[in-house]
Design a protein that fits this description.
The structure is a single chain. By secondary structure, the chain is α/β, with parallel strands linked by helices. It is built from 16 helices and 13 strands. The strands form three sheets. A six-stranded parallel β-sheet has the order 10-9-8-11-12-13, with helices on both faces. α9 packs across α14. It is globular and about 65 Å long.
Length: about 375
Amino acid sequence: MLAPTPYFADRGCHVRIYEEARALKDRGHEVLIVTYHLGRDVGDIPVVRIPNFPWYRKLSAGPSWHKPYLDIFLLYKALAVAAKFKPDIIHAHLHEGAFLAALAHRSFKVPILFDCQGSLCGELLDHGFMKKDGLLHRFFTKLEAWITRSAAHVVTSSTPTAEILRRDFPEISSRLTPLTDAVDTDIFQPLPHDTTLRRTLGIPADKRLIVYLGAMTAYQGVDLLLDAALELSRTRADFHLLLMGYPEETYVDKARQQGLTELVTFTGKLDYAQAPHYLSLGDIAVSPKLSATEANGKLLNYLACGLPCVAFDNRINREILMDVGCYVREREAAAFAREIGHLLDHPEKRNVLAANSRDHAVNNHSWSARIATLEQVYATLVG
């Protein structure tokens, strides 16, 4: 697996990489991950890293002008490792990984699988890295098309993404397979309410807890979520907001400026293994993610922990949540606040959704079933 990212850094993209690798290993495959110098090893999946660049310490998602030279070192490291490991397949994550693998396809001498988690241009626009229809946008649009066409096979983290690729690149339809995000339901499950943890976090015992787990960025909707909390606070005081993720400093300041300090707790960077314990404190889980092109894996963790979920109404969220989700049509803080308030006012609905959410995760989103699809794709590539 080629992972051009600071793996493992406790965020959605890395969770998909790890859980795919773990599920493959459980089925008898030998997996080796080649990645950046940053991050940490998790589980028993072997990881090989590029040399250390001490001035580059970015763990959060998003583009960086440092990545081109990191990717050059990553490619050379991957080629060196492949010469010894002798892989049957290069499983390239993200557009960067597929780009590097395509450049060195003749050297690897094995099929390249592109694991696509959204639109490259969509991500760059969401992060404010470029302007729509500008010179950079036109360049990356052509690059994204070349990357997509170059892979021997493409798997996507959502069905809507697969449909977009089929529309834009009909010539790859026969080598395109949706491999929707899944969740390890043995790790993420409802756990006993940890009153000591809740007290340590300073969360009042008499408040309903709204939880968020993920990157602390504008495109994930964290600004909108704080605005929604402010909207709720004008009419009620029976809730508390637990925000788990990083980089949180900007939002700590924003919450202070909005007068929300007593209503919001920030954990900062949270270890993947600890996430189920923190999520299990919650009564309602939220994902105000604004991007309609990226996968939304946090919803799977919410479901597996038996939490009612509030999210914006788009095809990616509906594919995951189906009929157990609470959807917000308007991309506005007031509308998001209204849906949260409705759940706070109806405990019976929360209880039904909690039970149904866990069942939905186990029956529809576990890796045990999903990984068989990936094995079938592998079989066609090495057959």
